[in-house]
Design goal:
Length: 215
């Protein structure tokens, strides 16, 4: 089961400095617990501040890496920041650049910088079955489909039936939106390869959550 922790430092109390410190601690927890991906989703940060935070996140991952199974860091929508910080990849919105085009731009930028970089991991947020199909055709590595369950203040949940249809596409699909320990089995029964979440990981002890999910 693939596990993706999506960050949101604004959920932590205190000053900006305190929230960033707490976020980096959570990223370290995720690394030690064996989460597969960490999506740095601090959308309110300007590019320079996001780059500084991403560099710190990459440093934390290197310092806490216990094995070759360390998490991979995905930067939300900013390929320039991912390249500059040597992050592992990018998470795209459904209306973002095509994953295929992004891979070409990434390769060109790497050549221009005269450095060898790994092929980026690319995930895509999807809200319809057609969007999942397009992500698969454009060579994304996996899709985040949601919101699957009810969440206050967001669009109508897609539900398990649409998740099941999305999981029939030729791409791994992670369930997103209102995911809890109790409803994860429903997502897996629908065909999801794993789950992505903010609160499930960020508001609980990550090691305990991962142990329960992988029992």
């Amino acid at each position: 089961m693939i596990l993706c922790y999506i960050t949101d430092r604004n959920q932590f109390p205190g000053s900006e400095s305190a929230r960033r410190k707490r976020l980096l601690q959570k990223i370290a927890e995720a690394a030690r617990a064996g989460v597969d991906y960490i999506q740095l989703r601090e959308k309110d940060l300007p590019a320079r501040e996001l780059e500084l935070l991403a560099r710190e996140a990459m440093r934390v991952l290197l310092e806490t890496r216990a094995s070759r199974l360390a998490p991979r860091l995905l930067i939300n929508s900013r390929a320039d920041v991912a390249l500059a910080t040597r992050a592992h990849g990018i998470h795209l919105r459904s209306d973002d650049i095509s994953p295929r085009d992004l891979r070409a731009l990434w390769a060109r930028a790497s050549r221009n910088q005269k450095r060898k970089t790994r092929n980026p991991v690319i995930s895509v947020s999807c809200h319809t079955v057609d969007e999942v199909a397009r992500a698969a055709a454009a060579r994304a590595d996996f899709a985040l489909f949601g919101p699957v369950f009810e969440k206050s203040g967001v669009a109508t949940p897609r539900g398990l039936d649409l998740l099941r249809r999305a999981c029939h596409q030729r791409i791994p699909v992670l369930a997103l939106g209102g995911v809890t320990l109790e409803n994860v089995p429903l997502c897996l029964d629908a065909g999801a390869t794993g789950i992505a979440a903010i609160r499930l990981f960020q508001q609980d002890d990550i090691a305990s959550v991962v142990r329960r999910l992988r029992m």
